[in-house]
Amino acid sequence: MAAVPTVAWEYATAPLLPGTTKQILDFWGADGWELVQVVPNPANPGQLVAYFKRALPA
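^ that's the sequence the OP posted. Answer follows.
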């Protein structure tokens, strides 16, 4: 059986601002980032934070 290659990831966070969410997600996605999760900002629960990941070059 062949070994499954291990993927290394890098991670980033970005605030999601009302009215610009699609543009923010499109910007990050165009640079190869995958949205992992959106959660309330712990410092400001009225604001959302997006968590992204992308594979590091092999």
